[in-house]
Design goal:
Blueprint (H helix, E strand, L loop, with lengths): L2 H12 L2 H13 L8 H16 L5 H14 L3 H8 L6 H17 L22 H10 L2 E2 L7 E2 L5
Length: 156
């Protein structure tokens, strides 16, 4: 058996260019499953990218990966907030998704877990989720108990 024959036999058995198209379609239609972690979603998107497009990681590869990751999120508002940041890598988009998803989950008055993916999000007019996170970090949040002036932390 020659090398060409062996290569042909292996390609017919384990995949071909048609397999790449299948992985690309899988990637395009990938959605986050209920109770699936962002980490698992990111790893699966990366796996499908490598299988569908190869491992030649350049700016275009990262751009397609980020687009696929954001499309796979089941929350359009979360995806928009991440897109606003104009991130260059999948890892950066993943970190931003973790931060915003964590914020959504810890503020039940804003949004509950059951609302994930729905069109309602109660933000103030012209106020993005990123600006609310920045306010929390700088400590300029008004005390919710006392409705008083902004405090770094409520001491009561």
């Amino acid at each position: 058996m020659s090398f060409a024959e062996l290569e042909k036999a292996l390609r017919s058995r384990f995949g071909s260019e048609h397999q790449r198209e299948i992985y690309k379609m899988e990637l395009e239609n990938r959605k986050r499953r209920p109770h699936e972690s962002l980490s698992d979603l990111m790893q699966d998107v990366r796996r499908l990218m490598v299988l569908g497009y190869g491992n030649d990681q350049g700016p275009m590869w990262e751009s397609v990966t980020i687009k696929s990751f954001l499309g796979a999120l089941d929350d359009p508002h979360l995806a928009i907030e991440i897109r606003k940041q104009r991130l260059a890598t999948l890892d950066a988009a993943y970190q931003e998704a973790l931060l915003l998803d964590g914020y959504y989950r810890t503020t039940p008055s804003e949004r509950s877990d059951g609302d994930r993916g729905k069109d309602e999000i109660r933000l103030g007019p012209r106020e993005s989720m990123r600006s609310r996170i920045d306010k929390r970090r700088t400590g300029s949040v008004i005390c919710w108990r006392h409705k008083s002036q902004p405090r770094p932390r409520c001491s009561r």
